Each structure stands twice: as structure tokens, then as C-alpha cells.
Amino acid sequence: MAMRDLRYFGDPVLKTVADPVTRFDASVKALVDDLLETVDLPGRAGLAAPQIGVSLRAFSYNVKGELGYVLNPEIVELSEETQEVTEGCLSVPELWFTTVRARHAVVRGVDLRNEPVTVEGSGLMAQCLQHETDHLDGKLYLDRLDKDQRRQALREARQRDWFWSR
Q1: 165 in a domain, yes or no?
Q2: Residue 128, in any domain of the structure
Q3: Residues forming the annotated binding site for Fe cation?
Q4: Binding-site positions
């Protein structure tokens, strides 16, 4: 297992739709181990594979003591009830903006044995499941902001020394 370096806003891997996991071998096991180790730090709720430079549909979560992962996750249910949350992202450090998310979410995917798994939750877990699945679809939470907030966020991001540009 290894703590992996993060990719930051501006890196093309973060705007690319991730490929499904099709081989359940040692390399995917190593990826899951790295995702779990990298997310298992204070203040980290979730981490998607693209955030460490791997364009595969995999994410880990660490919410209220519940540490886990999902391969090939798909959101299968979102509550109609929403919540306004202050959201941030490891790939957009130091920037926090109000985002609207479903209050409850259900994700289905598979584990390392290609066996079905379901993860669901409300509040922070629902936010995490939606946020990480967005990453796998090439979206950042900034994409969900209203026009004015998005403009402000992009301006602030471009001024940070972590901003990735060519």
C-alpha cells in the first residue's frame, strides 16, 4: 500500500470519464489498497481513482468511521429531498462552496471479487457517494455551482499554486 499523490483541478484526468474495471487482478487490488490508505487521513471523506491519476471507476470512502471502497459504482437512487452543503474537494484544496446534493443516495457496484455491493447513506455519506461518482464521470463539484459561484471558484483556483495548467 502507498499514500498516493493527488491530482489537482486543471489536470485532464479529472475531466475524463473513467473506464470500468474489467480485470480483478493484483493491480486493481493494489489500487484499492492505495485508495483506502490515501483516504484514511483526518478530514478526508472520499477519494476517486482519477484523483490519484488512475482513470478507472473506483473510489474509497471514509465517513464517520466507515472505511470502504466500490468498484464500478453507479448511483441507483437519489432522494428527492435535497440538502445545501458546504463542499470541498481534495483536488480543489482550500476552496469551499455551497452545493446542492440529494439528502440520501444509494450506490451499487462490485468488490475485488466482482461480487455485488451496495453502499447507501444520508447526509455526509450521501454527499460523498455523489461527489465521488461525479469524479468517475469526469465532473468536479465546481461543475454543479451556479454561474456566479463557478466563476468565482475558477478565478480563485487559477490563482493557487496547486492549479495544474499546461
Answers
A1: no
A2: yes
A3: 89, 131, 135
A4: 89, 131, 135
Catalytic positions, written as ranges = 132
| Cα R_g (the chain), whole angstroms | 15
pLDDT in tens, 12-37: 999 999 999 999 999 999 999 999 99
C-alpha grid cell, residue 139: 465532473
How far apart, in whole angstroms, are the C-alpha atoms of residue 134 and residue 84? 17
Report the CATH number that the domain containing residue 47 is assigned in CATH: 3.90.45.10
Range of the domain at 73: 12-158
Which residue stretches of the chain are H helix? 26-39, 124-136, 147-158
Pairing of strands 58-63, 46-48: antiparallel
Distance of CA 95 to the CA centre of its chain: 15
Residue 166 lies in a domain: no
Domain contains 89: yes
Query: What is the pTM for the complete model shown?
Result: 0.94
Structural domain count, the chain = 1
Please list the helix, strand and coil fractions of the chain in percent, rounded to the nearest 5, in that order: 30, 35, 35
Residue 11, Cα to own-chain centre: how many angstroms?
Answer: 15
> How many angstroms separate the CA atoms of 77 and 91, rounded?
26
